Amino acid sequence: MTPPAALALSPDALDALMPMHARVCPDGVIQHAGPTLQKIFPAGPCIGQPFFALFEPRRPRDTTDFGQICAASGGRLSLRLRDAARTPLIGTAVQLADGRGVLINLSFGIAVIDAVAQFNLTGSDFAATDLTLELLYLVEANAAAMAESRELNERLQGAKVMAEAEAQSDTLTGLANRRALDQVLARQIARARPFALMHLDLDYFKQVNDTLGHAAGDAVLTHVAAILLEETRTGDAVARVGGDEFVLVISGLIDAPRLTALASRLIRRLEEPIGIGAREARISASIGIAVSTGYARPEARIMMHDADVALYASKARGRACFSFHEPESGSGPSDQSAAQPDKADIAAPLPSRGKR
Amino acid sequence: MHGMIIRSFEGFLRNTYGPQLWDALICGLDAGIDGFEPMFHYDDVLAARLVTAAARRLGKPRGALLEDFGTYLVAHPASERVRRLLRFGGVNYEDFLLSLEDLAGRARLAVPDLDLPELELTDCGAGEYRVSFTRPPPGAPQVFLGLLRAVADDYGALVIADYTGAPGARAGISLRLLKADFAEGKGFRLAARATGRAERTA
């Protein structure tokens, strides 16, 4: 069988087969350009311009000689448009018979997504065999599927956060519960961040429940929660750990005068009469304080125990007061740090998270 | 049924008839969910119950409701992504029709476990086409009828489309393309950076 004869193709046929081709004369000037290639030069016609005045060679880098290009790399070349976006292009150049120049077919390669937007190309700008449309479709389909997936993840994340918050909060007051408190303490200790632990127990709360009823008791607890949140900062933790027992983790604060001020203020505010309908509830609080820097290696369980011991020392001294646990002085809280609130309010107030 | 489809149907009901209808429907289904997730799979029976319940509550024939769903997939702004993916099928409506047979394959490129009905397009000449389905899931031809009409509008083509054949294995759609450029179509730029939101309800 004889080899097929060389083809002679009309410019129209070439335009249909390769909408991004260029025919370049031996002197390097573009003689003809496919319709899509013409579209990427909105400023003026590319025909009649020297090829390398419009395109900057990237590979092979140092030559603009098509003879060398065709010989060296099988005609494969990599270019950039000499425009603001420096759009990359790839192409193949083949030499035409009888030294009539070269035919170069170009493509945007992976830069096609940006190029389509930049040059406002449409489906009919690409040959039917060109997979550009399929690529664009895939990019968009992938983005759509990813968006669905992301939205699902966001919904699940929202549900998870809510479930966790519910599992970690006290339903009546919305404060942290014991489980959340354990986590806060573990985090504080793991980060070796100094903190104070205040164990607060309401005084005379049982009388409120007994005389005004449980609904009034619940209202008082909610009121107490609000005060505790107002008097502490965002980074502190306030937990309700029993019927009328609360634990405060005061982060980064170990200074005795300031803790004294805080405890005094808490007691004073909790002693303000609480209106329950037409009636008034009056309570107070006893507090025990343990400070993490008082331990070589603070442990949540031991600190809780020591704050508890200090709390019962306050109760024993007649309630409505606070005591520090002081490890160095042996066991039990020290007398000198135990104080009635009116005598101990000596330090500047803490910046609080709530409005006073 | 793939969650992508049933969630789109949920979006159609929510966006067209309001959240109250949806809440009543999902409550009546008693399936222990308050909505469908696009990446999950659901029991076909549940999907069928949802369509039946919605049609009954709206006082519409099932077929008409499913046609409206097909229209929604193309014409509603909340479904812009679907419209765009369909428009990748061709530069004009005829081109789009010729790409219909690839639709299931294209859908699988995007979401590998999304099975759209296999269909065949016959060019009967003189602008007449016939779409035939091979074992379509119940209701799918009706959805396609609404969708094909809406895509014609989107391209600005004037088309008469009708449901042909008995429901079931031999279901099909006949199309007559009267004028390809009857009206100004809705724009389609290949590179749209913002592809519209998915089926979301406010």
UniProtKB/TrEMBL annotation, chain A:
Organism: Sinisalibacter aestuarii
NCBIfam families: GGDEF
Protein name: GGDEF domain-containing protein
Lineage: Bacteria, Pseudomonadati, Pseudomonadota, Alphaproteobacteria, Rhodobacterales
Region (Disordered), start-end ranges: 323-356
Chain ranges of the GGDEF domain: 193-327
Pfam families: GGDEF
SMART domains (UniProt xref): GGDEF (SM00267)
SUPFAM superfamilies: Nucleotide cyclase
TrEMBL record, chain B:
One Pfam family of this chain: HNOB
Record Gene3D superfamilies: H-NOX domain
Top-level taxonomic group: Bacteria
Chain ranges of the Heme NO-binding domain: 2-155
Transmembrane segments: none
Protein name stated in the entry: Heme NO-binding domain-containing protein
Lineage: Bacteria, Pseudomonadati, Pseudomonadota, Alphaproteobacteria, Rhodobacterales
